[in-house]
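Handout, section B. The chain below has 50 residues.
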Amino acid sequence: MQKLAGLLTQYNKVILLIFALLCGFFGWFVQDFRIDASAQTLLTKNNKLT
C-alpha cells in the first residue's frame, strides 16, 4: 500500500494529465451516446430477445 501511495505522490502530475485526457476523450464521445428505452425495445417477443 505504501508503494502505491509513493507512486501516486511521485507521479501526481502525470496521473492527473492521463486522467484529464481520458475525461476529455470520453467527454467528446458522450455526445454520440444514445439510450433507446422505448417500450418497443424493452418488450420481448415470446420471452425471447429478438
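Note. Residues 8 and 16 are 10 Å apart (CA to CA). Compare this with the example in section A.
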